[in-house]
Design a protein that fits this description.
It is built from 27 helices and no strands. The longest helix is centred in the N-terminal third of the chain and has 16 residues. Among the domains are: 114 residues; 106 residues, Tetratricopeptide repeat domain (Serine Threonine Protein Phosphatase 5, Tetratricopeptide repeat, Alpha Horseshoe); 111 residues, Serine Threonine Protein Phosphatase 5, Tetratricopeptide repeat, CATH 1.25.40. Helix content is 70%, strand content 0%. It starts with a helix and ends in an 11-residue tail after the last helix. The chain is an all-alpha fold. 44% of the residues are buried. Belongs to the PPR family. P subfamily. Pfam families: PPR, PPR_2. One of its GO terms (cellular component) is mitochondrion. Keywords: Repeat.
Length: 490
């Protein structure tokens, strides 16, 4: 839970929208996702269906958020962002839109385009260059590149992109890039090598502390905590939150509670994220009474229940086998105006699947409820539901889920396609399997070898191998637009 609390500023979340705006967001997202890429340029299509006068900066940001969550092709997102730049100067792009575009590109390893976009923004909209945009690109370089390449990227940003002398804030971004990838040996090396130049602050130490915790090494986390104190840094609520989360994940709930009590004695601010972390920790050790107590005490601490707190208690109840209690809690949540999110539904789906009381029928009912709310599930939920539907002989439900995702402008994960294709081909529905694969490729995503093999077997029995050749031809063209395996990172 603390990981979310300490990295929210580096994540791309779609803000709530009104129903009217949501309809327009979904319409534009679908236009972009459905566009046959890369066979035809996308900007003429946008000009025809999405007038520049209709594009407000918040709307652009919302659409890019949907494209990010939908794992849309990075070049499509880039073209949409560039199209939005044609709006009047009175409506400059927002940093959020730029950051989302940059993240989509870097995630797909379009590093040449990402660096070029950074350089263009430096020239046209320098105010968009923030530590967050720097972090987005640097984290992906650290993910896909080497230690040396990450340091070179840091230097390039200082000299060519930001063109200013970096300080502790940028140093923290560099450390976060290594810590996010759990490369703690490299993070420690950078710290020892550069700390004298950048004069670390308590945020620096908390980033490293979080890195050790995320690497799953409680001993290293505690050793670094003592080093932090020895260096003269005062622990704050983030420091305690990281340590509490580390102990919770290792099932040492007693030590986590001890630290929580220590916070109270030391008058360190107790945040909602820390209480939520403890509720999760209570669930890990199956202590639902303590979880409920912590949840009920939230208002007494001057805090308000949010979706995360409800999700934590719901997850605890599920772990303890109390599915009915979790359903009651979900109803209470809705009555109090706290909107369930994709995590809420994922937790309840898992609980129902394990429950004899609700089982498959309960999952189907909740699935329809989720659709009624126009809520789009995250990838793990989509794969889980697709597997459940297909294994229970309900391939039509699997196809319904696939179509629902496409209607919302999303292209489901490749694993979901493999599950659906397997089920469809097993039932001699090669045409439906081919159509799903074609939709995937036309949205800028390649299909896997297992899918191609299944299609080959099914289509050959019908004498329709020309369809497979058509699909392979589209994939070959798509490959020419995808970054090669040896893409330069800097």
């Amino acid at each position: 839970m603390l990981k979310k609390a300490t990295s929210d500023s580096y994540r791309l979340l779609l803000a709530p929208a009104t129903s009217i705006t949501r309809t327009e967001i979904e319409r534009i997202t679908k236009i972009i996702s459905d566009h046959p890429f890369p066979n035809h340029p996308i900007q003429p299509t946008l000009a025809k269906h999405v007038p520049l006068s209709s594009l407000s900066p918040p709307l652009v940001s919302e659409v890019l958020g949907r494209l990010f969550a939908a794992h849309s092709n990075g070049l499509k997102a880039l073209e949409f962002f560039k199209y939005s730049l044609k709006t009047p100067e009175s409506s400059p792009p927002t940093s959020d839109s730029f950051e989302k575009t940059l993240h989509i590109l870097a995630r797909m390893r379009y590093f040449d385009q990402a660096w070029a976009l950074m350089a263009e923004m430096r020239k046209e909209y320098p105010f968009l260059l923030t530590s967050k945009s720097m972090s987005i690109l640097l984290c992906k370089v650290a993910k896909f590149g080497s230690y040396e390449e990450t340091l070179s990227a840091f230097k390039r940003m200082e000299k060519e992109i930001f063109r200013k002398k970096f300080g502790v804030d940028e140093f923290n971004v560099l450390l976060r890039a290594f810590c996010t990838e759990r490369e703690m040996k490299e993070a420690r090396s950078v710290f020892e090598k550069l700390h004298s130049r950048f004069n670390p602050d308590v945020k620096t130490m908390n980033i490293l502390l979080l890195g050790f915790k995320e690497a799953g090494d409680v001993t290293a986390t505690e050793l670094f905590y003592h080093e932090m104190v020895k260096r003269g840094f005062e622990p704050n609520s983030v420091t305690y939150g990281v340590r509490i989360d580390g102990f919770c994940k290792k099932r040492n709930f007693g030590e986590a509670l001890r630290l929580f009590e220590e916070m109270g004695r030391g008058k360190v601010e107790v945040t909602l994220q820390i209480v939520t972390t403890l509720i999760h920790g209570a669930g890990v050790v199956r202590n639902k009474m303590k979880a409920r107590q912590l949840f009920d005490e939230i208002p007494e601490r001057g805090l308000r229940h949010d979706c995360g707190a409800y999700n934590a208690l719901m997850s605890t109840l599920m772990r303890c086998g109390d599915v009915s209690g979790a359903m009651v809690l979900m109803k209470e949540m809705e009555e109090k105006g706290v909107e369930p999110d994709s995590v809420t539904f994922h937790s309840v789906f898992i609980g129902m699947m394990k429950s004899k009381e609700f089982g498959f029928d309960g999952v189907c009912e909740l699935y329809q409820k989720m659709k009624g709310r126009s809520l789009v599930p995250k990838t793990p939920t989509v794969v889980m539901l697709m597997k459940l539907f297909c294994q229970n002989g309900e391939v039509n439900l699997g196809l319904d889920l696939w179509k629902y995702m496409l209607e919302k402008g999303y292209c489901p994960h490749g694993h979901a396609l493999e599950l659906l294709t397997t089920a469809l081909c097993a039932r001699r529905r090669a045409d439906d399997a081919f159509e799903c694969s074609r939709q995937t490729v036309e949205r800028g995503r390649c299909v896997s070898e297992p899918v191609l093999r299944m299609l080959e077997t099914s289509l050959s029995s019908k004498g329709e191998l020309e369809k497979l050749e058509e699909l392979k031809s589209k994939m070959q063209k798509l490959h020419s637009f995808l970054p090669p395996p040896g893409t330069q990172l800097i």
